[in-house]
Structures are given as structure tokens and as C-alpha cells.
Amino acid sequence: MNIFRLLGDLSHLLAIIILLVKIWKTRSCAGISGKSQILFAVVYTSRYLDLINAFISPYNTIMKIVFLAASYGTIYLMYMKFKATYDVNHDTFRIEFLIAPAAVLALIVNHAFEPLEILWTFSIYLESVAILPQLFLVSKTGEAESITSHYLFMLGSYRALYIFNWIYRYYAENHYDLIAIVAGIVQTVLYCDFFYLYITKVLKGKKLQLPA
Amino acid sequence: GTREKSKDEL
Q1: Least CB-packed of A18, A34, A79, A104 within 10 Å?
Q2: ipTM of this complex > 0.95?
Q3: CB-based contact (8 Å) between A45 and chain B?
């Protein structure tokens, strides 16, 4: 464990908590893409199957359970409890166009052709594009509530911090995982436009408005 | 391989 990965995991945890608080407190999931939340649930499910047969540390196990529970809990809140507030007309990104390529690529480019390894690789590829429906929704509505932009900032920061973790591990532990690194860079790049708007607008108290 | 080590990442 290193400081970059710890901060990354905490940023990820904070993002998930911010989202649950936003939906629970405002009793609304307006501005949130249910499609992205479905993709995150698929990512965590396919990545954390090793919970069954591999114990790494209490921290690792607890965080995996929290991420799984929070992602399914968010889907429950969005598609059941607060279904009336779900923006079905704007949340129209075709996620099959993200899932299929990730699955095909995982079958072609992986470290080992074994079920758990393919699923892990699939989850890495899918996670790198899982935020697209959410960014698409924000661009369609043209704006986002400030708490939603804080959620996105934390979520985007988590994988950006992981990049520093990979740099650290390359020099300190002399090991690297190209699949995770390339996907992590793609994932972080997708947030760049949002990061720019967040830092230049939201941090100055303005609302996050995307140029229409 | 490299994969073993990054298994401890979330």
C-alpha cells in the first residue's frame, strides 16, 4: 500500500458516499446516470469475485464489500425507491456499446486466458468507460448540481491517484501492469474536460454549466 | 507475473 493508492481508495469511497447522500438527502436522482451506476455494479461484480477465494487483507475485503453494497444500493435507490425522479429521457447512452467491446477486448488482450483473469480484465476495460453515460447525461442536460460535480471530481480523482500509485510501484517495487495502467489513463483522460470545468467554475462557486 | 502483484489493488 502507498499514499497514492490510499488517497485514491478514500477518494473513491468518498465519491460513492457523496452520491448516496445526494440521492438520500434530496430524495432525488436527477442528474445522475443510472446507466453508469449499472456499469459500475458490473465492474465491481466482475472484479471482486475473488472475494470468494482470495483473502488479501481486512482493508481489501472490507472495501470490496462496501463498493459492491454501495453500487447495488445506488441502483436500488435509482430504479426502485426514487424511480420517479430518474431522468429516463436524458439517460439514453447505449451501454451495450461499452460492454460488448470491453468483453471482446478482454478475450483478446489479457494476462491469462482463465475465467477470473478474463473477468478482471473485462472489469478494468469497462471501468475506463463506465463514466461515459454520466458525462453524456451532464452534456445533454447542460449542467450538473454542485454535489453531483463533487461526486464526479472525487470519482475522477481516484483513478488519477492510482496512476501515481502505478508510477510509485514501478520505481519502488519494480512491477507494473500495463492493462490497468493504459485503462486507467484512458479513464482519467475522459474526465479532463470535466476537471477543467470543475476547477474553473465549481470551485469559484459557480454552477457547472457545459457549453450547450 | 506482473498480474499477481496488482491483485492487491481495488
Answers
A1: A104
A2: no
A3: no
Residue A9 lies in a domain: yes
> C-alpha cell of A122?
473485462
In which domain, by residue range, is A139 found?
Answer: 3-86+93-203
Cβ contacts of residue A203 below 8 Å, gap of 6+?
none
Phi-psi map region of A31: left, alpha, beta (phi>0 left; psi -120 to 50 alpha): left
> Of the candidates B5, B7, B10, which has its C-beta nearest A173's C-beta?
B5
Burial of A105 by CB count in 10 Å (0-12 exposed, 13-18 middle, 19+ buried)? Answer: middle
Q: Is A106 on the interface with B (CB under 8 A)?
A: no
Total domains, chain A:
1
Work out how many CB contacts closer than 8 A connect A with B: 36
Least Cα distance to A16 among B4, B10, B9 occurs for B10
Q: Is residue A180 part of a domain?
A: yes
